[in-house]
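ok trying again, last paste got cut off:
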Amino acid sequence: MDLFDKCRNFTIAREAIAAGIYPYFTTLDDNSEGTEVVIRGRKVIMIGSNNYLGLTTDPRVRQAAIDATQKYGTSCTGSRFLNGTLELHVEAERRLAKFVGKEAALVFSTGMQTNLGTISALVDKGDVVIIDKEDHASIVDGCRLALGTMKRFIHNDMASLEKVLQSCPDSVGKLVVVDGIFSMGGDIAPLPEIAQLCKKYGAHLMVDDAHSLGVLGDHGRGTANHFGLTDQVDLIMGTFSKSFASLGGFIAGDDVVMHYVQHHARSFMFSASIPAANVAAALAALDIMEHEPERIERLWHNTRKMAAGFKALGFNIGESTTPVIPIYIGEDMKAVFAWNALFQAGVYTNTVLPPAVPPNKSLLRTSYMATHTDEQLDRVLEIFERVGKELGLIE
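nice, full thing came through this time. structure:
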């Protein structure tokens, strides 16, 4: 048996590429203003981005990155643990902790590394980490790296969560980890009920706010702020790759916990620090969040418009109540053909197939920006209506 046999036998992607219907690793020729992009020489409306506040091309964010590069260079060439900590990192940690209402924060190089490092550092042998079955892959992988036991509960099902908590002995340490906004379904974790159960069974609570910061809460402070439960959420995780228009991640919580994670999270200790340009861009985005709440208001205007529009056309958007709006298709190949037809017509979405979703539960993931215009969104709905009828997705 050759180790690479599995590689040679993996042909489905190449077959899709040859057929011209492969929906992944699409190269963007031009990012223009974010809401429209050029792909293979064709301009399309982008509704497959996590650029919720439309800040990736904001001149203030761009200039902040340029200025930081000129001052600090392109890299620290080392980990935060050794030679890779800049004053800019410390400033970001201070400001982010204050923004989400926690004592301290720790900036990682990516959001993935944040979850890998935090969960694996805190959940030790004999501990239990409990996660929602639809939590992000980075949470699942963080649990796999941890020495403790991972248990899962049915998505947003509080009876299922309580059953899992009841199965854990009082003597073990327990951490419940949920997404604030679920990245595929666009629904929100029922945080009040989750926090109540955590308190009842002596579990700590961590919320992944990757898709919630800049979207939910006062000035985009996230899910805990949205529900008025900041003091009942022990750990708040965020990424810079969505509303913060950059790359990186952070975890925020009590100072004593952040100090421990800082000295035990392997993905933090043994990875090069986030470049100054990325930190500066995230801080510039934070400035805009704090001073321009009208951007979030516009984002929600667009969200309500699109949710109502898709429902009126007869599309199934599930339980979404956020700027992440899935279009449930079901059959895998039908979802691929729908993606291709929409792309050819001028709309870019994301195709989500198994194993990211259960078999025959494939969907098109759409998401919206504060900078989308009503005219662009009307055009999207027109194209979805035409394609949906042509493919028999709607009547």
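cool. The chain has a mean pLDDT of 96. Residues 9-46+293-390 form a domain with the Aspartate Aminotransferase, domain 1 fold (CATH 3.90.1150.10).
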